[in-house]
Amino acid sequence: MIALTPGSMPWLLRHELRLAFRTKKTGPWAWAVLIVGILFMHGIGFLSAFGFGKMKLEPENVQMVFGGIGLFSMAIMLSVSMQLTVNSIYTRGDMDLLLSSPLRPGAILPIRLLAIALAVMGTTLAMATCFMNPSAIMISARWLIGYVTLPALCLLTVTVSFLIVLGLVKMIGARRARTVAQVLGGVIGIGAALAAQIPNMNNAADQATKAKNFQAMATMADNPAMAPIRWFGAAITGETGPFLLLALLSFGGFLLVTTLLGPAFVRSVNAAAGTDLTARRKGVNDTRPLSMHLRGVTGSILWKEWRLILRDPSLLTQVASILLVAAPIVLPTMGKSISTASGEVMAVGWMGVIPVAGLLAGALVWLAFAGEDAPDLLGTAPVSARRMLRDRLLAAAVPSLIIATAVSLYVITQTPWSGLILWLICLLSVSLYLLMDMRQGPALGGRKAFQKRYQSNMIALFGEMLLGFALFGLGWLALKFLAPFWAIPLLLVANAGALAGLLLQRRGEG
Amino acid sequence: MALPRLMRMTTTSPALEIRGLRKSYGEKEAVKGIDLTIQPGEFCGLLGPNGAGKTTTLKMVVGLLTPTSGSISVFGVDNQRDPVAAKRQTAWLPDEPMLYDKLTPLEYLEFVAGLWGIDARTAASRADELLTRLELHEHRNERCEGFSRGMKQKAALAGALIHDPRLLILDEPLTGLDAAIARQVKDLLAERARAGCTIILTTHIMEVAERLVDRIGIIQHGQLLAEGTLAELRQKHGRDGASLEELFLDLVSGKAVAA
């Protein structure tokens, strides 16, 4: 290991990185999932690069497209980094230790922001690589410029998110700033996901139409109002002038902000420390007696899980944003239809509910198991392990089941067999995601670690993505090629197997 | 305030009977064959250096850990054969309060009562009683996220008592509490013991053990070094007039020998 001077900025950065990226020991199967996931995403990247290369776009088209992609990525990164910035100010963690040490306060801020930038960049870069590498091979080596522009964008984003959070603390006070920043971060992420789908609203059915859409963008590139997006695209794609300006803005802005605002950061941290002591938010009406009706064990667990989510604006926006995963699938494909083996014609977009139901269940089961704040309390309750497991799974599954059933019921009214098959695949999706995500070990910090659950577990991220694609593909195959006579019994058997797998799980202890 | 319902209970089985209890983590043996019997209504203190195996032992008693070998019965119920029945009679209070920041104490008690299957009316009345007793009543509708450590510990203690356990197990219950809150907790525990509740606590504060508990067990390296009342321990180890602290230090350093 390289010897770094204790107390120096590189030494502190190594400490932050060690905390941020310390992963659990992973077995060979986990590495296999990761490698398959990366190869799979590279496969998609090669297909995209192939299609993109065939379009022979003019440079201004490319700049507009990448300007849009860059803005979208920045908005997503801004959403995540705002949550992480809020955590860095409000979750004391080791802040007391750092601030009481002889370290210069000015050294803490840049390191903390760099750590946030690296955490945000980790996931984004992992995804972007799968598209940059194929583009570099199939189109031009200059696409490798992404390895420079992405970190620059990330640094710029983190600096902006820090300025927003700090500004909020200054303007509306530490306590309110926390909630507002968390909600704002969520809204930015949701808005970006929706805005990214606007071009898809005009359904691109074939390559020719897609090319026309890009031509339309080229026309937009001539519009002076679109100049900033085009300039942004030029910077991302490595055009010398804009690229240097972006780099200057990112690195210069970062240095300037961290140099000038170190003391303000420390003041905000101190102000935030007082918010918990003054947080006296009411949970229920004073005059209401203890609201113990109907409950029992199952009711108590369901009530506890949902109330804890509903009371946490940050968690709520993060969980709600999962529903937006459907947007890239549903919106472009709503106009397309699939002729099923039963002779019905169903809109492909409805199949978006398959991964969404699973992802939502996976997120909630993470909260119910890995994020449980009082595992000892549940462990000592006089409830059989199997019943406790069943109730916690139920708490995680019910919201997904409601969504899946509502969508499927609507589809059933239009195309009965397809709707039924869709519903059965959704149930399978929910069970498989529960099975995958309930196995994650307890998270340090409980449910507060929800935002960072992929940071030290890229395998879970790729696993979830692969499962989503696989289930979507399975749904398409079942609808397209299997008559209901075959599809329904097969799916019932698969569901029974998944359910048995779930209920026979044992949560291990030491 | 009405006496807890424990006064009404009678039983002939020991409150806790541990036989040949062992727990290994791979090569490391954390508990090495402990035998211990605690009678109903006794207030027992488990003392030992850090890492001696106290918490591991207690976690096996409350069903959080599975023993490698040995048996544990709670009021005659084997906690491995019928864990639900054993847990129904037990409460566990760890050193770090098990609370949910976004719930109020009242909601927390409601949740715990739900887990133990207490009916709504009884739970409401007990919650009211406990929150008043622990001076948390005026904070009953505030979320726990704003509470001090002492308030959190009191809310967690109320949670441990809401189902009126016959065996109450506390791991370092007084750690980090100020004098006033520590006094409240000690008074409540003494009151519960007088009412017939069997209590086991671990502590590093010898003065607390000396003043509160009836019997003392000293654990080191996963083994029970000594067990009995303070007078019995003094007599057994030939240290008449010694304080518990002196006796404890002699025992764990190997200076004390059986008389």
Shape, per Cα inertia axes of chain A: globular
Largest interface: A-B, 43 and 48 residues
Percent strand of chain A equals under 5%
* Strand/helix succession of chain A: HHHHHHHHHHHHHHHHEEHHHHHH
Q: How far apart are the first and last residues' alpha carbons of chain A, in Å? A: 32 Å
In angstroms, what is the radius of gyration of chain B?
Answer: 18 Å
> Which class do the helix and strand fractions of chain A yield?
mainly alpha
Q: From the alpha-carbon coordinates, what is the Rg of chain A to the nearest angstrom?
A: 25 Å
Termini separation of chain B: 46 Å
Mean pLDDT of chain B: 86
Helix tally of chain B equals 9
Task: Write a structural description.
The complex is a heterodimer of chains A (510) and B (259). Chain A has 510 residues and is mostly helical. Chain A contains 22 helices and 2 strands. Chain A has helices at 9-21, 28-54, 59-90, 95-100, 105-138, 146-172, 174-195, 198-201, 207-221, 227-236, 240-260, 262-273, 275-278, 296-310, 313-322, 327-333, 353-368, 375-380, 385-414, 416-437, 458-481, 484-503; strands spanning 337-339, 345-347. With 259 residues, chain B is of the alpha/beta class. The N and C termini of chain B lie far apart (46 Å). Helix content of chain B is 36%, strand content 23%. The longest helix of chain B is centred in the C-terminal third of the chain and has 16 residues, at 179-194. The interface between A and B is large, with 43 and 48 residues.
Any descriptors?
heterodimer; A: 510 residues; two-stranded antiparallel sheet; 22 helices; 2 strands; B: 259 residues; alpha/beta; four-stranded antiparallel β-sheet; disordered N terminus
